Amino acid sequence: MFHCRERELWELNKRYTKEKFECVVIYGRRRVGKTALINEFCKEKPCIFFSALNASAEENLAALSKAIYEKEHTDAVTAPVYHSYDAAFTEITRMSEKERVVFVIDEYPYLAKAEPSVSSRLQHMIDHTWQNGKLFLILCGSSMSFMEYQVLGYESPLYGRRTAQFKIQALTYKEMTAFIPKLNVEQQALLYGITGGIPHYINKLEVENDIDEALLENLFNSAGYLYEEPENLLKQELREPAMYNSVITAIAGGASKSNEIAAKAGMESNVCAKYLKVLLELGIIKKETPVMEKQGKKSVYMIGDNFFRFWYRFVPKNVSAIQSGRISNVYEAAIKKHFADYMGLVFEFMCRDYLLRYEENLPILLSEVGQWWGTDARKKKEIQIDIVGTPVEGKEYIIGSCKYKKEAVGVDELELLKEYAAVFGYGTAYHYYIFSKSGFTENLRKLEEQGEVRLVTLEEMYC
After folding, report:
1. Most buried residue, 121, 122, 184, 355, by most Cβ within 10 Å?
2. Mind giving me the DSSP string for 142-194?
């Protein structure tokens, strides 16, 4: 079943109705739902859907020829192979003269790797033939660096030929409730913490009524689809998966600076930097810098993909129990007991999303939302502010705290926020937000009534 992506689907259909040539680039990390979006768009439309292979140019030409042939011969088992890509594209031109045809090249980087001239060939077809017709061309890829530099980039033969581009992102915590609406808000938050809003992972986890049961069946199970997913993805995307695994393991173990990661992974710093760059491009890790500061010595690396973060947190240390089939005996103590701690960082990102996308009565016009950390010179200690919302203009900031705990949050948290805001020091005025899974004390609620703070519960974040 297709969920979400309504904006992208609406935009694609709007362009389709115009009957003009389109070259739409769709890209994003693996498993995020690009192909599902394209399939939904292509329903009941004349379509040639070619999924490129990680194979030779000849094998890809045969697969493309079959996709073209199946457009008019739906029951075809075999198909004649065109003698060249130019001949195949010429046949597509002929088809699109009779009706508006959607021509999809999925996994375009595979085709470009197998046949390096294909981008130039497509450019020639667009410039001399297709731009005056009504073909609807879609180029889709999971290698974000390739799509951004080799398709959308200035050096690409295809530069300037695209008519639209969509970078497909993971779903927000609120969007993904469409998949399993019967779960309560705490279960929805945990599901987001596990899957990171990646539709493929939500589907493969196969939650019916109980997340614990689904985890034991589909993730903490050596026969489960998700058990080896991070390793399989690294093998699929990268030539040295073991080295990348070492880097991710180092970050998951608490290393956050490049030199710390290199030391923990057992490699030279300059070598480690190359692996970090690739993992950043894949979206598996991210680099965080305190708001208002430039990237530099204070920047840190962290796992940016929730599923990878969850997997590396809980699977490696429980491999023996999983492979011996004893995991259900230790699940409560070794895994579930730590969910609240694990969800702390996830909740911070949920709260950022809430401010950027869902809060309707913001006190300032936000430019960005991040976190800030630094030194309290007076007390000689490091402090961290979970949320700092910066203004488009002016000197008023949002300062926030996120608590994913069983206890109600009290007045002392607001006092601490005010103390931290003074250390932050960039603003002339601050608007305080406190987010809590378990609510707030009566005294803090009274201060909200007086306008001193805005209090947001997990329940309210899902309203």
Report:
1. 122
2. S-HHHIIIIISSTTSTTTTT-SEEEEPPPPPTTGGGGTSTTS-HHHHHHHHHH
- The model carries a pTM of 0.92
Q: Is residue 1 part of a domain?
A: no
CA-atom Rg of the chain in angstroms: 25
The residues facing 104 across adjacent strands are 49, 138
Q: Are 277 and 258 in contact (CB under 8 A)?
A: no
Looking at residue 13, which CATH number applies to its domain? 3.40.50.300
What are 27's strand-pairing partners?
141, 167
Q: Is 233 among the domain residues?
A: yes
The angle at the Cα of 30, spanning 306 to 103, to the nearest 5 degrees, equals 150
Same domain, 183 and 300: yes
**What is the amino acid identity at position 119?**
S
Residues 188 and 308 in one domain: yes
Question: CA dihedral defined by 67, 69, 75, 79, rounded to 10 degrees?
Answer: -90
Q: Are residues 54 and 69 in the same domain?
A: yes
What pLDDT shows up at residue 73? 80
Query: Domain containing 188 — which CATH number?
Result: 1.10.10.10
Q: Give me the pLDDT at residue 350, please.
A: 98
| Mean pLDDT, residues 170-189 taken together | 96
DSSP 335: T
- Given a cut of 70, whether residue 76 has pLDDT beyond it is no
CA dist., res. 428 & res. 447, Å (int) = 21
Domain that holds residue 249: 175-342
Q: Are strands 381-391 and 396-403 parallel, antiparallel or unpaired?
A: antiparallel
Which residues, in sequence order, are CB contacts of 232 under 8 Å at separation 6+? none
Tell me the three state secondary structure of residue 139. strand
If one counts every other C-beta atom within 10 angstroms of the C-beta of residue 175, the result is 19
> H or E element: which one contains 400?
strand 396-403
Residue 177 tokens, joined: 């409730």
Q: pLDDT tens digits for 356-394?
A: 999 999 999 999 999 999 999 999 999 999 999 999 999
Q: What span, in angstroms and rounded, lies between the C-alpha atoms of 113 and 199?
A: 28
Q: Amino acid identity of 31?
A: R
